[in-house]
Amino acid sequence: MKSIHWIFWLGVLVCVIGLATLPCKAEPAAEPEKASDEQATTNSFERRWFIIYGLANLQPELDETEGKINRLINHGLGGITPCWNKPETFADWRDDFKLWDIHLGGGLELTEKLSWYSTVGCVKGTTKTTTNRFPLLLPLETDVKFERLVWFVSSGIDYYPWGKPYLKAPEDGENGLMRRLRGSKPYFEGALGYVHIETEGDIDLKVLFGPKLYRYRDTAVYDLTYLSPRLGVEIPITQKTNLALQAGYLFFTSHKNEYDNGSYYLLFKRYF
């Protein structure tokens, strides 16, 4: 693997630094002065709507796509072209943690321990590799391009076994980060999703600065569904904004060798 989760952890580091530098000022307390934090949260529970926005990094298997690329391109054209360079593919993007999609949605708190949400999102990417070779002294140029468009709709339930996170009153000498970590809560999530995927691969073989000798195009469209269990932690940043960090796995109902994948999420929730 060419890199670690550097983009994901960079985002986490930025959030941690931001939380640590936030001022730790006392805020108006809604609960009675003698009541505990937990009792106050339970007694004053009211359903709140919220919006979700953020990013997810995906690690799909891509066995079907890579198998076809190796069969038709790397072992095909590569077998008759000296010093063949393998084209960049989305598997390379996956290994470099470049496969990110955007999440946007909303939800509703149902009880002190349950929330419902729904999100939509999309991602589009293009890779292109140009190789110049001179088999049998014939100057050839090979252009290989892959495109992928994905959009999805998902919905799920979050379960907080130890209650919802909330920003507690500061203690003496406590910094902003520790105050927010003290108010954080772990949770479990179960999600269902529908995914629409369009893929296209183009191979152009031509004489350098001359006419095309060969062109191959392969396209595919998939409509898929998945089930995803996830584990996360939600950290209160302010009274109405939380940071959610998640990890999970997407189990697809078909094309499992291609699209089953681990996933990592960096999300924000804004409550109303």
Task: Summarize the structure in words.
Helices cover 21% and strands 49% of the residues. The chain has 6 helices and 8 strands. The protein has an 8-stranded antiparallel beta barrel with strand order 1-2-3-4-5-6-7-8. β6 and β7 (241-252) form a beta hairpin. The two termini are 42 Å apart.
SSE arrangement:
Blueprint: H1 6-21, H2 37-43, E1 49-60, H3 63-80, H4 90-95, E2 100-109, E3 114-133, E4 140-159, H5 176-182, E5 185-207, E6 212-236, E7 241-252, H6 256-259, E8 261-271
Antiparallel strand pairs: 1-2, 1-8, 2-3, 3-4, 4-5, 5-6, 6-7, 7-8
Question: What is shown here, in short?
Answer:
The chain is α+β, with helices and mostly antiparallel strands and 272 residues long. It is built from 6 helices and 8 strands.
SS elements, strand count: 8
Placed side by side, the strands forming the largest sheet appear as: 1-2-3-4-5-6-7-8
Largest β-sheet summary: 8 strands, antiparallel, barrel
Secondary-structure element sequence?
HHEHHEEEHEEEHE
Instruction: Report the portion of residues in β strands.
Output: over 45%
Radius of gyration: 24 Å
Summed over residues and divided by their number, the pLDDT gives a mean of 84
| Bulk shape | elongated
